[in-house]
Model the fold of this input.
Amino acid sequence: MAALISGAGAASMADIVATGETGAAALSVRGLRKSYGGQEVVAGVDFSVPRGTCFGLLGPNGAGKTTTLRCCLGLTAPDGGEIALGGYPVPAAADAARARVGVVPQFDNLDPDFTASENLLVYGRYFGLADAGIRARIPALLDFAGLAGKEGARLQTLSGGMKRRLTLARALVNDPDIVFLDEPTTGLDPQARHLIWERLKRLMAQGKTLILTTHFMDEAERLCDRLAVLDHGRLITEGAPRELIAAHIEPQVVEIFGDEAPAWAKARRALGERLEVAGDTAFFYCRDAAPLLAALPEAPGLRYAHRAANLEDVFLKLTGRELRD
Ligand code: ADP
Done:
């Protein structure tokens, strides 16, 4: 365990031989199932995350993302399936797996009675790390999180963005190989989100594996090497963001806004391959948007945006536009 303090996250050769980890996926999930009250909320999920990559698990509220991640971490007992985390079977060897894992939970659960340093110290002790080793790492961890000099800061004096970054620093206290991040930037302002993205990219450059849930499609598109979309407990697609956009969506989108937009668009639906209407916005999905763009000047009072298709278009096509609570 002491090697976790000072090492660069690399397993010792003895560990590798003992666990047969070499070349194994950081996380592999096969046939995962979990029911609550007779309802299957994870209904046979399979995916695998290669080491050193960022994997995104996307899905509407209630899709089963948190349950899936909790099963992977050994925090929820699955009803069926196989999980290997960092080469260790979960839940059988969940404690050994978690020693090499960091977690940024959806809601910050820092201790409000402690300073920034004390939060890191107490968390490090859960991993059996010696105080001296944790203290030696604290300045670098806070610096990484953009909190240099905040060792003695009380939690009440930190902004929401600072607390989120402290939670990230805390997740790194054991120098994990794999970091789980459950909606790491929800509630943050754009500056704070960009800072977190930049830090997550640094972690990837260090060879760490990231497993991310997010409702921000731009975040997923920017960070994830591969991602899966989960809905009603099942994976409905998986691939690299660009691959998914190319596979599921026409390349160009024209969004037309205004009270008259739905009626105007419906009368001209032949100008695009696909038309979707949501409120006062019409979304034309086109292989070639030129004929539609040529027709738009004759529509006074309508505003429009012409853009490339993105991951949000894929997500909405696959999971629908109805609200999920
Ligand atoms: P997501 O993270 O995608 O929003 P969750 O995994 O949190 O989805 O939830 C999936 C479904 O499982 C939801 O319908 C939720 O109400 C239900 N659920 C999650 N945890 C529990 C629990 N401990 N007891 C009962 N139902 C649960």
